[in-house]
Amino acid sequence: MPPKPSVSKLVPKVPGVPGVTGTSRRQQYSASTKRALVDVAEELFTDLGYAAASLDSIVAGARVTKGALYHHFSGKQALFEAVFERVEADASRAIQKALRGRKDPWEKALAGLQAFLAVVQEPRYRRIVIQEGPSVLGYERFREQEERSTFANVLEIVRSVLSAGTWELEEDMLQTFARIFFGAMSSAGESVSSADDPIAAAERVETAIAFILQGFQALADDGVPLPGASGEPA
Amino acid sequence: MPPKPSVSKLVPKVPGVPGVTGTSRRQQYSASTKRALVDVAEELFTDLGYAAASLDSIVAGARVTKGALYHHFSGKQALFEAVFERVEADASRAIQKALRGRKDPWEKALAGLQAFLAVVQEPRYRRIVIQEGPSVLGYERFREQEERSTFANVLEIVRSVLSAGTWELEEDMLQTFARIFFGAMSSAGESVSSADDPIAAAERVETAIAFILQGFQALADDGVPLPGASGEPA
DNA sequence: CTGGGTACGTACTCACGGTATGTGAGGACC
DNA sequence: GGTCCTCACATACCGTGAGTACGTACCCAG
Question: Is residue B123's pLDDT more than 80?
Fold first, then answer.
């Protein structure tokens, strides 16, 4: 027996800007429902976690059915990836915004650190990227994603800081330092967000990182070469 | 209709040491099946991940039924926790073993670092603890577990190193430093295990960490106090 | 106005975690 | 060495949720 489609319950959903050229109304509707799916998915994944957020509840929240979901995404994991990428992109933008304008490497580093610590506080970033990301995407895909978003920022900062002291060091070693700092900041960020007093904890992290960087400077002043350096410190 | 129990297909499983006192044969059998369940679960969780490893496949591998599983564990998550705790405990023991005997804090730090890097290479540790741990256990429980196993080792090392230079610093700040180093080593460890040349990567990590610690020493020699220090450097 | 294709909706299957209930082998006690 | 009780499982079943097959209404081109 064919399903009874009932009366057309088409509500205009989102009208969209009328003056937009190039996209038909159909495409606008489609993009709108896709966005709605990602929006609801982000919220439910954040609140309940990946496993506990059922597709039924997601499509219900977006006021569509599974047919729509499987039209736009190949499955639950693909939907999660879309959410993941958006959260990561937002985080990356927030950090880059904090970096904009700063010229001094050390100032950049501090600003970047603060922005990163702020991002790690966001529940959606903690849940979707840090907590569920590795498990759902698998480590390989997870690393690939981070590599070209948040980690890229850290790498850039570390590069500018380490090459500031007229050091020239190998790319491998720079990557290693960036990894170390990235991990340090991630872990520190978590401890900040779960601390009783996050503000004080953030300050402690900042002073600790600053202290480490200060040590770098002291070594540079003493003429100690960076490991893997091809040039000599000033 | 009551189930037909068929013929008793009881094979002796594991005889157990006959001379063990205090435990009845029943208890020995029970403990043996429990161990078998955890063994198989560890293997399947490592190879397939938490979600993809079905309870049916686990009980089949252990040659029991779900009745046995639910007699020993309250559910899938509880089984995972048992696996998790064992992997963590093994890792912690491995690190402590590497530390045993070393007296010099710097030597201890290096040995601990090497042991940690070795542990992070193990597939089961990577998969169960790092990858699936936060997602399955939830961040709170995950942190609690790490707090009293692997992280405890790192904390001890950091404490001995930082207090070696006649520094006396606040517990909060020490925790912060330990967190930072723990995260740094975790992240570095991952990059090591996924590198093309893990041995060279491990060496880079060691030199990088050593360089950071060297910076600490340089600052100490220059009379720069550690942040949050109540005492003065020598 | 009419075909075609897109963007869904409907109804279904199957796998998997969890549960209710049965049962037979220890082991304690007399 | 019989009796009885309990523990350590086995069996059969259920609900949920991811994924799928298929149908259909609406938009746009011609």
Answer: yes
3-state secondary structure of B169: strand
Highest mean pLDDT among A25-39, B123-137, B220-234: B123-137
Query: Which of B143, B147, B192, B204 has the highest number of chain A CBs within 10 A, making it the mutation to test binding with A?
Result: B204
Domains of chain A with bracketed CATH: 16-73 (1.10.10), 81-221 (1.10.357.10)
Q: Which residues of A touch B177 (CB under 8 A)?
A: 208
How buried is residue B6: exposed, middle or buried, by Cβ count under 10 Å (0-12/13-18/19+)?
exposed
| Spatial distance between the Cα atoms of B20 and A12, rounded to a whole number of angstroms | 76
Contact B205, B213 (CB under 8 A): no
Predicted confidence (pLDDT) at residue B98 exceeds the cutoff of 80: yes
Q: Which of B77, B135, B147, B193 best probes binding to A when mutated, by most A CB atoms within 10 angstroms?
A: B135
Distance of CA B145 to the CA centre of its chain: 9
Cα dist from A48 to A43, A63, A103, A230, B129, whole Å: 8, 19, 41, 50, 21
- Within window 66-95 on A, which residues have Cβ closer than 7 Å to strand D? 66-67, 70, 75-77
Mean pLDDT by 10 residues, chain A (234 residues): 36 37 73 96 98 98 97 97 97 95 90 92 94 95 91 91 73 92 89 88 92 88 76 42
Total number of residues shown for chain A: 234
Alpha helices, H only, chain A? 25-48, 55-61, 66-72, 76-99, 105-121, 123-124, 133-137, 139-147, 150-162, 171-193, 198-221
d(CA A124, CA A13): 26
pLDDT for the residue A22:
55
Smallest CA–CA separation between A1 and chain B, in Å?
Answer: 36
3 state DSSP class of A72: helix
